[in-house]
Amino acid sequence: MSARYDHVELHEFATRLFQAAGLAPERAAVLAEVFLEADLMGFTTHGMNRVASNLQWLLDGDSRGEGEPAVLADRGAVFNWDANFLPGPWVVSQALETALARVPEHGVVTATLRRSQHIACLAAYCPRVIEAGYMVLMTCSTPSERTVSAFGGSEALFSANPLAMAAPGEDYPLLFDISMSITAGGYVARARREGERLPEPCLKDAAGNITDDPAALEGPPPGSIMPLGGAGHGYKGAALSIATEVLSMALGGYGRDDEQSSGDGEANSVFLQVIDPAAFGSLEAFKRQLQALQALVTGSAVPEGAPPVRFPGQRAWQLRSEQLRHGVALYPTIMQDIAPWARQLGVTVPAELP
After folding, report:
1. All structural domains of the chain
2. pTM (2 decimals)?
């Protein structure tokens, strides 16, 4: 059963952990905010679940705790940075804040980043954009990672390449964060750790056999995750995998063609775009159209006895509001993994809520 913690106390706890690992207080607070935001919306594999790995990277020197990103290109509405292994949540937050500051002038601001340490959950960056009245489109890829096969192939070629989009609405936003693979690597790892099969056959073993056994991904020899659409329609997901790598790697000028990228670990190439709906007309008109679309989807007919159709972002935004009021429910293994770090770094674990 998931333990529940006070949101403020959990943020302070994660902030102190990152400070103890060598981050300046303001950077530590940003990492804590991004990881916690993911759990608030129910993205449990890429939120606080990533705290332990980020602490390890900081202490091992795989993440660069100090310094700024290098500016490779800047034309106002377009910029490209080399993060040089700065902590992903911090450097992406910096890029997003830069885009938010510029979007009133330009209407649309687009950025790419290379060599950002793993940026965790894309959806976690979206609330600040939504609350500012803007849209955001984000994707990322991992140049050194090959876990997802092309359609019809058995060899792992791509990373999972999530795509997120968010936009402000009247009652709740549009918000989604989905991988271009049929499942995310985090869910495969969790299933293997817990000795469970996957809910459906999502993988191929090294021989190309379709399976629901999570051990097939790691092997040996290693298998692959099928692209979104699976065995029947995975050509769609494979095309989207290529599209996201073009946006994040090709536009950023760093990725599969760079020999040194093979040693980048989980570092990401990132694409983000912030859009001001008011630059095209008015925010009010935009929200009216989105609200009509939401009503169209949620009011659609369902089989007798079936739950109503949900609009992307409806459940996540409701869960976020509830957990801000009543406490954040962490997946059971998350605090198990963080607690040893807390003892090592001398940080007190927050008490569970009754």
Report:
1. 3-182+226-283+314-345 (3.30.1370.60)
2. 0.95
